[in-house]
Description:
- By secondary structure, the chain is mainly alpha-helical.
- It has four helices and two strands, in the order H-H-E-H-E-H.
- Strands 1-2 form a two-stranded parallel sheet.
Amino acid sequence: QSFVRDMLDDSSDLAIVQSVIGLGHAFGRSVLAEGVETQAHGNRLLAMGCELAQGYGIGRPMAASDFDLWLKDWRAHPTWKA
């Protein structure tokens, strides 16, 4: 999470995130990024080939009973759509 959070400002963290995504793809694994706090994080991760993510930029923590309503109303940022 800390690497993703700081990847937009720290080139070393960006290199680590890019390497982990590359390793995941090389081994045929899905990669899920934690700490996606902004649309800019999501845009950069998508550009690097990471399509799964979690973080405040997507949704705040919530009770399980609230999830279905949140999911029904949630819309991806337009730049995140393929």
